[in-house]
Amino acid sequence: MGKLNSKQIENMTEPGTYEDGDGLRLVVGASGRRSWVLRYQFQGRRRDMGLGGFPVVSLKVARLAAAEQRRLMASGTDPMAARDAERERQREDQRQGEARKIPFEALAAEYLEAHGAAWSSKWRAGWLRKLELYAFPVIGKLPTSEIETEHVLRVLRPIWGTKSRTADEVRGQVEKVLDAAKARRLRDGDNPARWRGHLENLLGTAEKKKARKRQHFPAMKWQDVPGLMAKLALCETPAAVAARLLILTGARSHMVRFATWFEFDLAACVWLLPAERMKTRQLFAIPLASEVVELLAGLPRIEGSRYLFPGQGRSGVMHANAIRNLLHALGHDDVTRHGFRSSFRDWANERTLYPREVCELALAHDQRDQTEAAYSRSDLFDKRRALMADWAKYSTTSPAANVIQADFKRA
Length: 411
Prior knowledge:
Shape: elongated
Oligomer: single chain
Protein backbone atom coordinates (compact mmCIF):
# COMPACT_ATOMS: atom_id res chain seq x y z
CA MET A 1 0.00 0.00 0.00
CA GLY A 2 1.43 3.40 -0.98
CA LYS A 3 1.95 6.19 1.47
CA LEU A 4 0.81 8.99 -0.83
CA ASN A 5 -2.57 9.89 -2.24
CA SER A 6 -3.58 12.04 -5.19
CA LYS A 7 -5.07 14.86 -3.09
CA GLN A 8 -1.87 15.18 -1.03
CA ILE A 9 0.23 15.39 -4.16
CA GLU A 10 -1.95 18.10 -5.70
CA ASN A 11 -1.42 20.28 -2.63
CA MET A 12 2.33 19.66 -2.21
CA THR A 13 4.37 22.85 -2.64
CA GLU A 14 7.11 22.46 -0.05
CA PRO A 15 10.39 21.40 -1.74
CA GLY A 16 11.53 17.98 -0.66
CA THR A 17 11.33 14.22 -1.31
CA TYR A 18 8.17 12.33 -0.42
CA GLU A 19 8.27 8.54 -0.24
CA ASP A 20 5.44 6.40 -1.60
CA GLY A 21 7.18 3.08 -0.90
CA ASP A 22 9.27 0.41 -2.64
CA GLY A 23 11.64 3.07 -3.96
CA LEU A 24 9.00 5.26 -5.60
CA ARG A 25 9.21 8.87 -4.49
CA LEU A 26 7.90 12.26 -5.50
CA VAL A 27 10.49 15.04 -5.68
CA VAL A 28 9.23 18.60 -5.35
CA GLY A 29 11.68 21.21 -6.61
CA ALA A 30 12.20 24.79 -5.47
CA SER A 31 10.06 25.96 -8.39
CA GLY A 32 7.24 23.70 -7.28
CA ARG A 33 7.77 21.25 -10.12
CA ARG A 34 6.86 17.69 -9.05
CA SER A 35 8.64 14.65 -10.58
CA TRP A 36 8.47 10.93 -9.99
CA VAL A 37 11.72 9.07 -9.28
CA LEU A 38 12.33 5.38 -8.71
CA ARG A 39 15.33 4.67 -6.52
CA TYR A 40 16.66 1.14 -6.85
CA GLN A 41 19.84 -0.84 -6.46
CA PHE A 42 21.14 -3.08 -9.23
CA GLN A 43 24.28 -5.20 -8.95
CA GLY A 44 25.41 -3.20 -5.92
CA ARG A 45 24.92 0.16 -7.60
CA ARG A 46 22.25 2.65 -6.50
CA ARG A 47 20.39 4.39 -9.29
CA ASP A 48 17.65 7.03 -9.55
CA MET A 49 15.36 6.62 -12.54
CA GLY A 50 13.00 9.40 -13.58
CA LEU A 51 9.45 8.29 -14.42
CA GLY A 52 8.01 11.63 -15.51
CA GLY A 53 6.38 14.65 -13.95
CA PHE A 54 3.09 15.12 -12.12
CA PRO A 55 0.29 15.68 -13.16
CA VAL A 56 1.15 14.31 -16.65
CA VAL A 57 2.12 11.10 -14.89
CA SER A 58 -0.47 10.44 -12.23
CA LEU A 59 0.13 8.55 -8.98
CA LYS A 60 -1.53 5.45 -10.42
CA VAL A 61 0.57 5.53 -13.60
CA ALA A 62 3.75 6.15 -11.60
CA ARG A 63 3.05 3.11 -9.41
CA LEU A 64 2.42 0.94 -12.50
CA ALA A 65 5.64 2.19 -14.09
CA ALA A 66 7.61 1.47 -10.91
CA ALA A 67 6.13 -2.03 -10.75
CA GLU A 68 7.19 -2.67 -14.35
CA GLN A 69 10.76 -1.59 -13.60
CA ARG A 70 10.89 -3.86 -10.54
CA ARG A 71 9.70 -6.72 -12.75
CA LEU A 72 12.62 -6.05 -15.08
CA MET A 73 15.05 -6.11 -12.15
CA ALA A 74 13.62 -9.43 -11.02
CA SER A 75 14.42 -10.85 -14.47
CA GLY A 76 18.02 -9.63 -14.23
CA THR A 77 17.69 -6.48 -16.34
CA ASP A 78 18.78 -3.00 -15.35
CA PRO A 79 15.69 -0.79 -15.99
CA MET A 80 17.72 2.28 -16.94
CA ALA A 81 19.90 0.29 -19.32
CA ALA A 82 16.76 -1.20 -20.89
CA ARG A 83 15.21 2.26 -21.25
CA ASP A 84 18.37 3.68 -22.81
CA ALA A 85 18.50 0.77 -25.26
CA GLU A 86 14.86 1.31 -26.21
CA ARG A 87 15.43 5.03 -26.73
CA GLU A 88 18.44 4.27 -28.94
CA ARG A 89 16.36 1.79 -30.94
CA GLN A 90 13.69 4.42 -31.45
CA ARG A 91 16.30 6.97 -32.53
CA GLU A 92 17.77 4.40 -34.94
CA ASP A 93 14.31 3.68 -36.34
CA GLN A 94 13.83 7.39 -36.84
CA ARG A 95 17.23 7.75 -38.55
CA GLN A 96 16.45 4.72 -40.70
CA GLY A 97 13.09 6.19 -41.61
CA GLU A 98 14.74 9.43 -42.69
CA ALA A 99 17.42 7.50 -44.61
CA ARG A 100 14.75 5.56 -46.49
CA LYS A 101 13.63 8.90 -47.92
CA ILE A 102 17.00 9.52 -49.60
CA PRO A 103 16.35 9.78 -53.36
CA PHE A 104 17.80 7.36 -55.90
CA GLU A 105 20.08 9.97 -57.46
CA ALA A 106 21.77 10.66 -54.11
CA LEU A 107 22.35 6.96 -53.49
CA ALA A 108 23.71 6.59 -57.02
CA ALA A 109 26.23 9.34 -56.27
CA GLU A 110 27.21 7.56 -53.04
CA TYR A 111 27.62 4.27 -54.95
CA LEU A 112 29.88 6.00 -57.47
CA GLU A 113 31.97 7.50 -54.68
CA ALA A 114 32.30 4.11 -52.95
CA HIS A 115 33.19 2.07 -56.04
CA GLY A 116 34.45 4.52 -58.64
CA ALA A 117 37.99 4.89 -57.32
CA ALA A 118 39.05 1.77 -59.22
CA TRP A 119 37.43 2.97 -62.47
CA SER A 120 38.95 5.19 -65.12
CA SER A 121 37.88 8.84 -65.10
CA LYS A 122 36.21 8.29 -68.46
CA TRP A 123 34.23 5.30 -67.15
CA ARG A 124 33.19 7.22 -64.00
CA ALA A 125 31.94 10.16 -66.04
CA GLY A 126 30.10 7.90 -68.47
CA TRP A 127 28.59 5.85 -65.64
CA LEU A 128 27.01 8.91 -64.07
CA ARG A 129 26.11 10.53 -67.40
CA LYS A 130 24.02 7.55 -68.50
CA LEU A 131 22.01 7.71 -65.29
CA GLU A 132 21.57 11.46 -65.65
CA LEU A 133 20.24 11.06 -69.20
CA TYR A 134 17.99 8.05 -68.81
CA ALA A 135 17.31 7.11 -65.17
CA PHE A 136 17.26 10.30 -63.11
CA PRO A 137 14.41 11.97 -65.07
CA VAL A 138 12.19 9.01 -64.13
CA ILE A 139 13.40 7.74 -60.74
CA GLY A 140 16.04 10.24 -59.64
CA LYS A 141 13.85 11.94 -57.03
CA LEU A 142 12.16 8.76 -55.81
CA PRO A 143 13.28 7.04 -52.59
CA THR A 144 14.65 3.62 -53.47
CA SER A 145 12.01 2.04 -51.24
CA GLU A 146 9.34 3.26 -53.67
CA ILE A 147 10.95 2.11 -56.93
CA GLU A 148 9.02 -0.74 -58.52
CA THR A 149 9.21 -2.70 -61.76
CA GLU A 150 7.01 -0.21 -63.61
CA HIS A 151 9.45 2.61 -62.81
CA VAL A 152 12.38 0.59 -64.19
CA LEU A 153 10.42 -0.23 -67.34
CA ARG A 154 9.69 3.47 -67.84
CA VAL A 155 13.44 4.05 -67.76
CA LEU A 156 14.35 1.26 -70.17
CA ARG A 157 11.57 0.95 -72.72
CA PRO A 158 12.26 4.22 -74.60
CA ILE A 159 15.86 3.13 -75.36
CA TRP A 160 15.64 -0.66 -75.32
CA GLY A 161 15.25 -1.08 -79.07
CA THR A 162 17.33 1.90 -80.27
CA LYS A 163 20.16 2.11 -77.74
CA SER A 164 20.17 -1.46 -76.57
CA ARG A 165 23.71 -1.62 -75.23
CA THR A 166 23.26 1.59 -73.28
CA ALA A 167 19.89 0.39 -71.99
CA ASP A 168 21.43 -2.84 -70.74
CA GLU A 169 24.19 -0.91 -68.98
CA VAL A 170 21.67 1.46 -67.37
CA ARG A 171 19.63 -1.52 -66.18
CA GLY A 172 22.73 -2.99 -64.55
CA GLN A 173 23.56 0.31 -62.88
CA VAL A 174 20.07 0.69 -61.47
CA GLU A 175 20.22 -2.90 -60.21
CA LYS A 176 23.47 -2.30 -58.37
CA VAL A 177 22.30 0.93 -56.73
CA LEU A 178 19.11 -0.79 -55.57
CA ASP A 179 21.13 -3.77 -54.28
CA ALA A 180 23.30 -1.37 -52.30
CA ALA A 181 20.16 0.31 -50.92
CA LYS A 182 18.80 -3.02 -49.75
CA ALA A 183 22.11 -3.89 -48.10
CA ARG A 184 21.73 -0.65 -46.13
CA ARG A 185 18.13 -1.58 -45.24
CA LEU A 186 16.79 1.34 -47.26
CA ARG A 187 14.42 -0.86 -49.26
CA ASP A 188 12.78 -4.27 -48.97
CA GLY A 189 11.80 -7.01 -51.37
CA ASP A 190 13.26 -8.20 -54.66
CA ASN A 191 15.25 -5.98 -56.97
CA PRO A 192 12.92 -4.70 -59.74
CA ALA A 193 15.89 -4.13 -62.07
CA ARG A 194 17.15 -7.71 -62.01
CA TRP A 195 17.27 -9.42 -65.40
CA ARG A 196 17.08 -13.17 -64.91
CA GLY A 197 13.66 -14.42 -63.99
CA HIS A 198 12.22 -10.91 -64.08
CA LEU A 199 12.91 -8.23 -66.71
CA GLU A 200 13.89 -10.86 -69.27
CA ASN A 201 10.21 -11.81 -69.24
CA LEU A 202 9.12 -8.21 -69.84
CA LEU A 203 11.72 -6.88 -72.30
CA GLY A 204 12.65 -8.54 -75.59
CA THR A 205 16.21 -9.61 -76.36
CA ALA A 206 16.04 -9.59 -80.17
CA GLU A 207 16.42 -5.80 -80.40
CA LYS A 208 19.37 -5.89 -78.05
CA LYS A 209 21.20 -8.49 -80.12
CA LYS A 210 20.55 -6.57 -83.35
CA ALA A 211 21.83 -3.33 -81.85
CA ARG A 212 25.01 -5.00 -80.69
CA LYS A 213 25.60 -6.52 -84.11
CA ARG A 214 25.42 -3.06 -85.67
CA GLN A 215 28.31 -1.80 -83.53
CA HIS A 216 31.64 -2.44 -85.24
CA PHE A 217 35.15 -1.19 -84.56
CA PRO A 218 37.63 -0.67 -87.41
CA ALA A 219 39.99 -3.62 -87.09
CA MET A 220 43.29 -4.67 -88.57
CA LYS A 221 43.23 -7.81 -90.68
CA TRP A 222 44.62 -10.70 -88.68
CA GLN A 223 47.16 -11.34 -91.46
CA ASP A 224 48.71 -7.90 -90.77
CA VAL A 225 49.05 -8.30 -87.00
CA PRO A 226 52.52 -9.99 -87.05
CA GLY A 227 53.89 -7.11 -89.14
CA LEU A 228 52.60 -4.56 -86.64
CA MET A 229 53.96 -6.59 -83.73
CA ALA A 230 57.39 -6.57 -85.38
CA LYS A 231 57.23 -2.77 -85.61
CA LEU A 232 56.11 -2.46 -81.98
CA ALA A 233 58.94 -4.72 -80.83
CA LEU A 234 61.40 -2.15 -82.17
CA CYS A 235 59.83 0.58 -80.01
CA GLU A 236 60.89 0.90 -76.40
CA THR A 237 58.14 3.26 -75.28
CA PRO A 238 55.57 2.24 -72.63
CA ALA A 239 52.82 2.77 -75.23
CA ALA A 240 54.44 0.17 -77.49
CA VAL A 241 54.65 -2.36 -74.64
CA ALA A 242 51.04 -1.61 -73.71
CA ALA A 243 49.96 -2.12 -77.32
CA ARG A 244 51.71 -5.49 -77.47
CA LEU A 245 50.09 -6.55 -74.19
CA LEU A 246 46.72 -5.41 -75.54
CA ILE A 247 47.08 -7.48 -78.70
CA LEU A 248 48.56 -10.61 -77.13
CA THR A 249 45.93 -10.91 -74.39
CA GLY A 250 42.83 -9.75 -76.28
CA ALA A 251 42.16 -7.32 -73.43
CA ARG A 252 40.26 -4.06 -73.62
CA SER A 253 42.21 -0.81 -73.61
CA HIS A 254 41.14 0.32 -70.13
CA MET A 255 42.08 -3.09 -68.72
CA VAL A 256 45.65 -2.55 -69.94
CA ARG A 257 45.93 1.12 -69.01
CA PHE A 258 44.82 0.50 -65.41
CA ALA A 259 46.65 -2.81 -64.97
CA THR A 260 48.50 -3.05 -61.66
CA TRP A 261 51.40 -5.29 -60.73
CA PHE A 262 49.28 -6.88 -57.99
CA GLU A 263 47.04 -8.43 -60.65
CA PHE A 264 49.83 -10.43 -62.27
CA ASP A 265 51.31 -13.73 -61.19
CA LEU A 266 54.12 -14.22 -63.70
CA ALA A 267 55.18 -17.49 -62.11
CA ALA A 268 51.71 -18.94 -62.66
CA CYS A 269 51.35 -17.08 -65.99
CA VAL A 270 48.01 -15.51 -64.99
CA TRP A 271 46.53 -12.03 -65.10
CA LEU A 272 43.71 -11.91 -62.54
CA LEU A 273 41.34 -8.99 -63.02
CA PRO A 274 39.04 -8.09 -60.09
CA ALA A 275 35.30 -7.88 -60.73
CA GLU A 276 35.14 -4.10 -60.44
CA ARG A 277 37.54 -3.74 -63.38
CA MET A 278 35.53 -5.99 -65.67
CA LYS A 279 32.68 -4.89 -67.91
CA THR A 280 30.78 -8.00 -66.80
CA ARG A 281 31.51 -7.15 -63.13
CA GLN A 282 32.84 -10.70 -62.62
CA LEU A 283 36.32 -11.84 -61.63
CA PHE A 284 38.24 -12.88 -64.76
CA ALA A 285 41.53 -14.72 -65.24
CA ILE A 286 43.55 -14.23 -68.43
CA PRO A 287 46.17 -16.89 -69.20
CA LEU A 288 49.53 -15.40 -70.16
CA ALA A 289 51.55 -16.93 -72.98
CA SER A 290 55.30 -17.22 -72.48
CA GLU A 291 55.79 -14.28 -74.86
CA VAL A 292 53.64 -12.09 -72.58
CA VAL A 293 55.47 -13.19 -69.44
CA GLU A 294 58.79 -12.36 -71.11
CA LEU A 295 57.43 -8.98 -72.18
CA LEU A 296 56.27 -8.09 -68.65
CA ALA A 297 59.40 -9.45 -66.99
CA GLY A 298 61.40 -6.88 -68.94
CA LEU A 299 59.08 -4.00 -68.08
CA PRO A 300 60.60 -1.79 -65.35
CA ARG A 301 58.58 -1.04 -62.25
CA ILE A 302 58.21 2.66 -61.56
CA GLU A 303 58.83 3.51 -57.92
CA GLY A 304 55.81 5.01 -56.22
CA SER A 305 53.29 3.64 -58.71
CA ARG A 306 51.34 0.39 -58.63
CA TYR A 307 50.53 0.60 -62.32
CA LEU A 308 52.36 -1.10 -65.18
CA PHE A 309 51.94 2.03 -67.27
CA PRO A 310 51.90 5.06 -64.95
CA GLY A 311 51.15 8.56 -66.21
CA GLN A 312 51.22 12.16 -65.08
CA GLY A 313 47.50 12.95 -65.20
CA ARG A 314 44.89 12.76 -62.47
CA SER A 315 44.19 9.10 -63.22
CA GLY A 316 47.83 8.20 -62.54
CA VAL A 317 48.01 6.02 -65.65
CA MET A 318 49.02 6.29 -69.29
CA HIS A 319 46.95 8.72 -71.35
CA ALA A 320 43.85 7.19 -72.92
CA ASN A 321 45.09 8.04 -76.42
CA ALA A 322 48.71 6.92 -76.00
CA ILE A 323 48.26 3.63 -77.90
CA ARG A 324 46.05 5.24 -80.55
CA ASN A 325 48.61 8.02 -81.15
CA LEU A 326 51.37 5.44 -81.49
CA LEU A 327 49.35 3.44 -84.04
CA HIS A 328 48.72 6.61 -86.02
CA ALA A 329 52.42 7.45 -85.92
CA LEU A 330 53.13 4.01 -87.38
CA GLY A 331 50.72 4.67 -90.21
CA HIS A 332 47.75 2.72 -88.85
CA ASP A 333 45.17 5.44 -88.40
CA ASP A 334 42.51 3.21 -89.95
CA VAL A 335 42.26 0.81 -86.98
CA THR A 336 41.19 1.10 -83.35
CA ARG A 337 42.57 -0.41 -80.17
CA HIS A 338 39.35 -2.30 -79.57
CA GLY A 339 39.53 -3.66 -83.10
CA PHE A 340 42.41 -5.98 -82.22
CA ARG A 341 39.91 -8.13 -80.35
CA SER A 342 38.16 -8.62 -83.68
CA SER A 343 41.50 -9.40 -85.33
CA PHE A 344 42.08 -12.13 -82.78
CA ARG A 345 38.56 -13.46 -83.17
CA ASP A 346 38.81 -13.58 -86.98
CA TRP A 347 42.16 -15.39 -86.72
CA ALA A 348 40.66 -17.94 -84.33
CA ASN A 349 37.77 -18.50 -86.75
CA GLU A 350 39.87 -18.87 -89.87
CA ARG A 351 43.08 -20.46 -88.64
CA THR A 352 42.04 -22.68 -85.72
CA LEU A 353 39.46 -25.26 -84.78
CA TYR A 354 39.03 -24.11 -81.19
CA PRO A 355 35.36 -24.29 -80.09
CA ARG A 356 33.38 -21.10 -80.36
CA GLU A 357 32.76 -20.88 -76.60
CA VAL A 358 36.51 -21.03 -75.92
CA CYS A 359 37.18 -18.18 -78.34
CA GLU A 360 34.37 -16.08 -76.88
CA LEU A 361 35.44 -16.66 -73.28
CA ALA A 362 38.97 -15.60 -74.25
CA LEU A 363 37.43 -12.17 -74.87
CA ALA A 364 35.43 -12.33 -71.61
CA HIS A 365 32.24 -12.95 -73.61
CA ASP A 366 29.98 -15.66 -72.25
CA GLN A 367 27.33 -16.27 -74.89
CA ARG A 368 26.12 -19.58 -73.52
CA ASP A 369 22.40 -19.59 -72.89
CA GLN A 370 21.09 -19.71 -69.31
CA THR A 371 20.58 -23.45 -69.22
CA GLU A 372 23.98 -24.17 -70.71
CA ALA A 373 25.72 -21.71 -68.38
CA ALA A 374 23.93 -23.16 -65.35
CA TYR A 375 25.30 -26.64 -66.03
CA SER A 376 28.69 -25.57 -67.38
CA ARG A 377 30.19 -23.05 -64.99
CA SER A 378 33.81 -23.59 -66.06
CA ASP A 379 35.73 -20.66 -67.53
CA LEU A 380 37.60 -23.15 -69.81
CA PHE A 381 40.87 -21.71 -68.54
CA ASP A 382 43.18 -24.50 -69.73
CA LYS A 383 41.70 -24.47 -73.22
CA ARG A 384 41.96 -20.69 -73.31
CA ARG A 385 45.60 -20.97 -72.28
CA ALA A 386 46.33 -23.16 -75.30
CA LEU A 387 44.42 -20.77 -77.58
CA MET A 388 46.24 -17.68 -76.32
CA ALA A 389 49.60 -19.47 -76.61
CA ASP A 390 48.87 -20.17 -80.28
CA TRP A 391 47.78 -16.57 -80.83
CA ALA A 392 50.95 -15.23 -79.21
CA LYS A 393 53.10 -17.56 -81.29
CA TYR A 394 51.34 -16.48 -84.49
CA SER A 395 51.46 -12.77 -83.62
CA THR A 396 55.15 -12.74 -82.78
CA THR A 397 56.32 -14.90 -85.67
CA SER A 398 57.76 -13.03 -88.62
CA PRO A 399 55.22 -12.33 -91.39
CA ALA A 400 57.26 -14.32 -93.92
CA ALA A 401 57.23 -17.42 -91.74
CA ASN A 402 53.49 -17.10 -91.20
CA VAL A 403 52.79 -17.18 -94.92
CA ILE A 404 53.89 -20.82 -95.23
CA GLN A 405 52.32 -21.90 -91.94
CA ALA A 406 48.88 -22.75 -93.30
CA ASP A 407 47.97 -25.81 -91.26
CA PHE A 408 45.06 -25.57 -88.85
CA LYS A 409 45.55 -25.80 -85.11
CA ARG A 410 43.40 -28.37 -83.40
CA ALA A 411 41.93 -27.71 -79.94
